[in-house]
Specification:
single chain, mainly beta, 7-stranded antiparallel beta sheet, 7% helix
Amino acid sequence: MSSLKPKVQNPMLCTSTDGAACSAHGAGHALSAMHGRLASATPSKWRDGIAGYPTVDGWIPIELLEADAADNHTVWVWNHAPGLVAPGEPVALHSVYSALAVGQARFNVLVAASLG
């Protein structure tokens, strides 16, 4: 069930130091220009949600306003940047390109549950 916290340990290690820009473009790290353009070019794939309280290891529960194809309402995402989103903040999660929109900002996230 996606409502349970993922059991992934150290999903991806980042070599960036605190405060330095991340140079990795894997899931949960920097959003590449192409990744951002692909997500922007497919607006129908965004799913609205509300961010929950992040775990100590950086996983953030996103409570989707509409369930995904598997009838899940909670999707867990991870990004190595602390303080990415405040609990209760409205967000949008891209179901194909694993991007998280927080206001005007876009982030690359590792998604622990599939979206439809």
